[in-house]
Backbone:
């Protein structure tokens, strides 16, 4: 029988208070129901989607953001199988039904139930209830040899891998080339996932910050350049052919036009970032269709991509922990957001205050 919690069921959360600001408050927490589990948070990653919602004030006051969590199982609901109290786990927040028309056609992230948040109240909480569908289909026990910092990237790396697979980049060719536009945490994660998927691929990274370009090369990029230099560099590296795929992690019609211009005939552009509100793409449609180029949108990762990334993380094939630059307590959440906006941090982990620094 699962042990029972005797103390009052309360937890500290980072609550959205409006106007892009947050506060730490105490919330009551229900007991885990059938098939659910209660997790004590170890860390939660601050991601680009969180930043976008805060910047655009699209969050309902009182909401708790966060979804990249690693924690310890503290209590199991009735009938919950496959996990034990005390185990360290990962728990993705979105899980498709696997049975609808979209799921059956491989469009799992567009399933009508996929966007339902299965982490209650959200990742930036000392305790998180993981709902039944996530426990049954997506949660995973983490082996002792895998650090929290490596594990936290499972969900975002799965999103990246989906875009890579959809781009159709040829594998195993020494001449294959991909361009990553933007060397923030997600841009550099693209670099790492591309290299994990195919060590032979040449990845060229572009950014405006010299220190991020240097880091990209240290992480395995074939070359790195500023936006002004990237076009000629791609032509040089590919002997005029163009890149097999370009991954836009910045967003916007201007970046899209640049990405299309540097891909080869038959190449792909993968959109992996929000564009400014109202932005519209403008490029020569005849040139686009005559050269059989593709533009691919990628919203999230499915269980298939999560399983592959999990295998890579456990095997040591993918370790993105170097991208984490700060580990801050909940009480410094707004500071963490400001640091990301000022480009002073790559990836920040938020932790309960007694564990923060």
Residues:
């Amino acid at each position: 029988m699962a042990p029972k919690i005797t103390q009052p069921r309360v937890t500290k959360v980072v609550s959205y208070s409006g106007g892009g600001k947050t506060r730490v408050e105490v919330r009551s927490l229900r007991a885990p129901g059938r098939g659910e589990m209660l997790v004590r948070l170890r860390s939660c990653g601050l991601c680009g989607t969180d930043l976008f919602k805060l910047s655009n004030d699209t969050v309902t006051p009182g909401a708790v953001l966060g979804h990249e969590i690693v924690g310890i199982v503290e209590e199991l609901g009735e009938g919950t199988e496959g996990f034990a109290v005390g185990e360290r786990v990962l728990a993705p927040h979105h899980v498709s039904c696997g049975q609808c028309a979209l799921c059956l056609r491989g469009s799992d992230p567009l399933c009508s139930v996929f966007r339902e948040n299965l982490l209650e109240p959200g990742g930036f909480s000392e305790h998180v209830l993981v709902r039944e569908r996530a426990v049954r289909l997506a949660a995973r026990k983490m082996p002792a040899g895998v650090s929290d910092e490596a594990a936290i990237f499972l969900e975002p790396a799965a999103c990246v891998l989906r875009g890579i697979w959809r781009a159709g980049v040829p594998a195993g060719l020494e001449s294959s080339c991909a361009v990553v536009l933007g060397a923030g945490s997600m841009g550099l994660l693209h670099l790492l996932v591309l290299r994990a998927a195919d060590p032979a691929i040449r990845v060229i990274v572009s950014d405006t910050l010299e220190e991020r370009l240097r880091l990209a090369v240290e992480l395995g990029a074939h070359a790195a350049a500023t936006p002004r230099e990237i076009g000629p560099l791609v032509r040089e590296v590919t002997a005029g052919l163009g890149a097999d795929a370009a991954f836009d992690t910045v967003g916007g019609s201007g970046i899209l036009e640049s990405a299309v211009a540097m891909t080869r005939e038959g190449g792909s552009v993968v959109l992996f970032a929000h564009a400014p509100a109202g932005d519209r793409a403008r490029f020569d449609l005849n040139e686009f269709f005559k050269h059989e180029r593709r533009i691919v949108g990628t919203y999230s990762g499915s269980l298939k991509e999560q399983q592959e990334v999990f295998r890579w993380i456990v095997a040591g094939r993918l370790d993105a922990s170097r991208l984490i630059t700060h580990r801050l307590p909940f009480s410094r959440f707004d500071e963490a957001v400001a640091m990301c906006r000022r480009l002073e941090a790559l990836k920040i982990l938020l932790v309960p205050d007694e564990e923060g620094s």
